[in-house]
Amino acid sequence: MIILILRTLISALSSHRALALENLALRHQLEVLQRNTKRPRLTNRDRILWVVLSRLWTDWRKPLFLVQPETVIRWHKRGFRLYWRWKSRPRWMGRRRVPKEVRNLIRRMSQANPLWSAPRIHGELLKLGIVFSQATVSMYMVCQRKPPSQSWRTFLKNHAKDIVSVDFFTVPTATFRVLFVFLVMSNDRRNVVHFNVTESPTAAWTGQQIVNAFPWDTAPKYMLRDRDGKYGDEFIHRIDSMGMEQVLISARSPWQNPYVERVIGSIRRECLDHTIIFNDRHLRRVLKEYFRYYLRILNTLLMASSS
């Protein structure tokens, strides 16, 4: 009995010794493999094996040589995502096909009723027992051709007849006096509606010029001007009584009142820069001749553009 027990112990010790030696040999081979290959290639089966071992074996981190424990954890998380992606997959791929008869019906309904939108056609189909989404109905509707929208240039041109621009500019005389010229210009046809010359412009005088430019009920709706101090309280009161709305440009921004500024530049370059003005009567006569010439040229250009 004692001999049998001793033999069993010796066999157990020898098997444990052989298992330890085998583990030593395997670890040595893994170390050699790790020295020769920096990053060995693992298959999905290898990854699944280590994920399963990590779930079943508490000491699974000790024999790891080829990969880090964080890598195995990352494999497990990736497998979890793939599992739930497979579990939540759609039961059919793509959009459900719409029969040809229903597509033709949607097209006929949209052509016969151009004012019907997708919700209306969708409701009519539901009454017929044809169940599809509203997005599907809008996909197969016939696009109605709409008239092109007007451009901003056309929009401004249509409203330009209700806008006038006013401004002052100065002219030195032969005796070094400074005369002020007040211009009232219509933005519709770029023609000068009214002008006058004075040596000392006041708010009352400027307001009277607006009355002379638009007698009776011919005043436009808007007037574009700068923030000059010559437009005082009396001028503002006169404009309000005529039913006009003043639109003030920003300070030191003459480019916001471009039409009248361009006309003033043309007057200087084409007329006043080549003439010595003696007095206010001479300046009025010169400007009348220039505006008569300017109006004739402007009408010729407008007739040529319209033809």
Question: What this model shows, in words?
Answer:
By secondary structure, the protein is of the alpha/beta class. It has three domains: 41-87, no CATH class; 100-140; 155-306, Nucleotidyltransferase, domain 5 (2-Layer Sandwich), CATH 3.30.420. The protein has eleven helices and five strands, in the order H-H-H-H-H-H-H-E-E-E-H-E-H-E-H-H. It has helices spanning 2-36, 44-56, 69-87, 100-112, 118-127, 134-140, 152-159, 203-213, 233-241, 258-270, 280-306; strands at 163-172, 178-186, 192-198, 222-225, 245-248. Helix 5 (118-127) packs across helix 6 (134-140) and helix 8 (203-213) packs parallel to helix 9. The longest helix has 35 residues, at 2-36. It starts with a helix and ends with a helix.
Instruction: Classify the fold: give the CATH topology of the largest domain.
Output: Nucleotidyltransferase, domain 5
Mean of pLDDT: 82
| Top CATH class of the largest domain | Alpha Beta
- Radius of gyration, Cα only, in angstroms? 47 Å
Give unreliable regions as ranges: 1-7
Characterize the biggest β-sheet.
Answer: 5 strands, mixed
> What proportion strand?
5-15%
Distance between the termini: 131 Å
User: What is the number of beta strands?
Assistant: 5
What percent of the residues sit in helical stretches (DSSP H or I)? 40-55%
CATH superfamily of the largest domain: Ribonuclease H-like superfamily/Ribonuclease H
Shape: elongated
Broad structural category:
alpha/beta
Total domain count: 3
Number of helices in the DSSP assignment:
11
- Which H/E pattern describes the elements? HHHHHHHEEEHEHEHH
CATH architecture of the largest domain: 2-Layer Sandwich
Instruction: Please list the strands of the largest sheet in the order they lie side by side.
Output: 3-2-1-4-5
